[in-house]
Design brief:
25 helices
Amino acid sequence: MSAAIRRSTYAEVRAALLARREIALLDVREEDPHAQAHPLFAANFPLSRIATNAYAKLPRRSVPIVVLDDGEGDAERAAAKLSELGYSDVAVLAGGVAGWAAAGGELFRDVNVPSKAFGELVEATRHTPSFSAEEVQALIDANADVVIVDARRFDEYQTMSIPTATSVPGAELVLRVPALAPAANTQVIVNCAGRTRSIIGTQSLINAGLPNPVAALRNGTIGWTLAGQTLERGQSRRFGEVDEDTRQSAGEAARQVAERAGVGRIGRDTLASWQKQDGRSTYFFDVRPPEEYEAGHLPGFRNVPGGQLVQETEMVAPVRGARLVLADDAGVRADMSASWLAQMGWEVYVLDDVGPADFTESGPWQPPLPALPAVNFISPAELARHQRETGDIAVLDLTTSANYLRGHVPGAWFVQPSRLAAALDRIPPASLYVLTCATSQLALFFAAELEELLASPVRVLAGGTQGWRAAGQPLETEPTRLASPPIDRYRRPYEGTDNPREAMQGYLDWEFGLVDQLARDGTHGFFVI
């Protein structure tokens, strides 16, 4: 298999990045090994989920793709899978991660590194103002005229938040803060978990000309915790609606910022042409909150709220050099998000000339998928009966390790889909094997592979674990049957409430060094207005 797969060198990939030609540099390892070391623009694209991710994240089948691993052999398997899915220009990076470093390439830790490194560059260039945790606590204690806004996702805010803070995810700040702090002398403080989203959020308000004094909470909830101060849990304060005057003035300010950054504009005719994906890869993002998107959106647009799009760009747009088109009924959120993406080196456009009548689709985004394989299903009731009557059955759960821990079919084994053969060595033989995941969608694509490895019949659980739970069947939460190592998820030092102090401080120290790493890498193409 590997002899027929083309090899691409570090020099070729670097040349494409410098020339801003389209290239999808895909790290097909699981997220944790990816986070330990990878090239700057290598997007995590696990082998386990190629079938369910490829058509959504690689919209043009002729896009140049280079896959990499660290010698595990996953790159060759991924290249073959992508070719089977119809991608015509697929290569494997010669030498993988080690080869990249040996050729002089810079390696980066953590996830969403391009966005985080860009945030550090913004602060270093614009000297974005910030307050320490102790200074913010003193303002709260003194009942000062201060408004604190949390620029993370709402679920992150609910896990832990700064006292008195209101949830205002990043792309909403320019639109919502004028209503939260109508007096021009009110101090506005923007926080996130670490640094990036608070820096970008603070600078967004400054760039848009908010008259208030604005500052970031230096080092976010990590800095707050390291200062020995108490975080709130389970809060639900959210931004409210704004009046038409506020919406119009925010829209004008955001458009001016977008123009300064070089954001383009397109109309519906151009949109229709670009949606054909002829000759260029183009991504279409609706940057509003999920509830607005689900109430009504444009056909062909994926929902990624703007703050997260800026923070996690490579997770949804792994083709570096592609075009991005952003949509938003108010304009503010698309323009502000686009202004940052343009500074991050993207060719980005905002869709103009659309109104409520164009938002004709409703409900959540549905990713495009390959043809679903024909499989034999088993219902939750049948599975429960087999478990009760014979017990000679093996349930393999292909979901994420986090989902597995939240609840799985009793007796189910956690298995990485790309490691089926190795996992079977740890699972006692059975007369019947059942595959599941959250919805069983991913399981569909691995049933045939499992059948090839076994002499026993294979079934897929109808409706997956969600269907099992909906049928009133019990769930188990103990991590007692891990047939694969849970390396599909990298534990961020800024998430959750029980991180070691050393890990949090180490994360901050790493962020501080990103600007120097950018300079050594030299491929980023970032600028700061």
